[in-house]
Structures are given as structure tokens and as C-alpha cells.
UniProtKB/TrEMBL annotation:
Its main location: membrane. It comes from the Eukaryota. The lineage of its organism: Eukaryota, Viridiplantae, Streptophyta, Embryophyta, Tracheophyta. It is a multi-pass membrane protein. The chain crosses the membrane at residues 6-27, 48-66, 72-94, 106-126, 132-153. One of its GO terms (cellular component) is membrane. This is Bidirectional sugar transporter SWEET14.
Length: 156
């Protein structure tokens, strides 16, 4: 399986390219949050996509710590956690009270309770190589939901 080892230059090169693209995706909402910051208002934007993206990054870091040689996954998702946390903090700072409370509840439910339950479930109920496989499927599913979450807030 040397093809999938980080020492393989081709795999490493594509891993770096993937991280650069992921970094650009994490920065994509920056104009929105700059506008929120300038206007001191969330203008009806929702926190759901950013909370789900934070959970996804957190789970990918957990997944990467269970596997070996996953430095690229850890680095990009650590950056993702930082960026998404900043977005959420800006959102909470400028959201109206009702939206702020909703964002805090969503953050608590998904990122603290949900993440904690997934860690407990995968740690105590799934053993050996199956743990990584189960967690990988959870991560892939949640990653897809990162791109589905914004669709839930689209207006007709």
C-alpha cells in the first residue's frame, strides 16, 4: 500500500493541492462575514452551515488521530475549526437575540453533545479497524451535509 503513504510524492502533492482547495472553500464565506462585521447585523443569514462545517472539521480531526500518517487531514481541519469558530463567533456577536440563542443551542447540540456522543459511541462500541471505518463513514456523510446545509436555508 505504498501508493497511499505520505512518502509517495504524487499522493503528497495531491494532498497539498486538496488542502489548498479546502482552504479556499473555508475562506469562501469571508465576504459575507466581512459584510456582517461592517453592518453589525447578520441580515437574516443562518448559522447552520457554519456550525455543521465546524462539526465536520472536528470529526475529521478525530478520524485522523485514529489513523496513522494523516498529517494533511489534521492540518487542514485544524485550520477549518479555527476559521469556522471565528465565523460562528462573529455571527453570535452580531445576531439578534433570538438568532443568537438559536445559534448557541445549535452549536451546543451538534458540536458538544453530538460530537461527544460520536466519540463515546465509536470509542466504546466499535473496536479495532471497524472504528476507523465507521467513523470514516460518519465523516463522509457529515461532509456531504456541509454542502447540503446551506440549501436548507434557501428562500423560495
Amino acid at each position: 500500500m505504498a501508493l497511499f503513504n505520505i512518502q509517495n510524492p504524487l499522493v503528497f502533492t495531491f494532498g497539498i493541492l486538496g488542502n489548498l482547495v479546502s482552504f479556499a472553500v473555508y475562506l469562501a464565506p469571508m465576504p459575507t462575514f466581512y459584510r456582517i462585521f461592517k453592518k453589525k447585523s447578520t441580515e437574516g443569514f443562518q448559522s447552520l452551515p457554519y456550525v455543521v462545517a465546524l462539526l465536520s472539521s472536528m470529526l475529521w480531526i478525530y478520524y485522523a488521530t485514529l489513523k496513522s500518517n494523516e498529517t494533511l487531514l489534521i492540518t487542514i481541519n485544524s485550520v477549518g475549526c479555527l476559521i469556522e469558530s471565528i465565523y460562528i463567533a462573529i455571527y453570535i456577536a452580531y445576531a439578534p437575540r433570538k438568532a443568537r440563542m438559536g445559534a448557541v443551542k445549535l452549536l451546543s447540540l451538534l458540536n458538544f453533545v453530538g460530537f461527544g456522543l460520536i466519540v463515546i459511541f465509536t470509542h466504546f462500541l466499535v473496536k479495532g479497524p471497524e472504528r476507523v471505518q465507521v467513523l470514516g463513514w460518519i465523516c463522509v456523510t457529515l461532509s456531504a451535509s456541509v454542502y447540503i446545509a446551506p440549501l436548507t436555508i434557501m428562500k423560495d
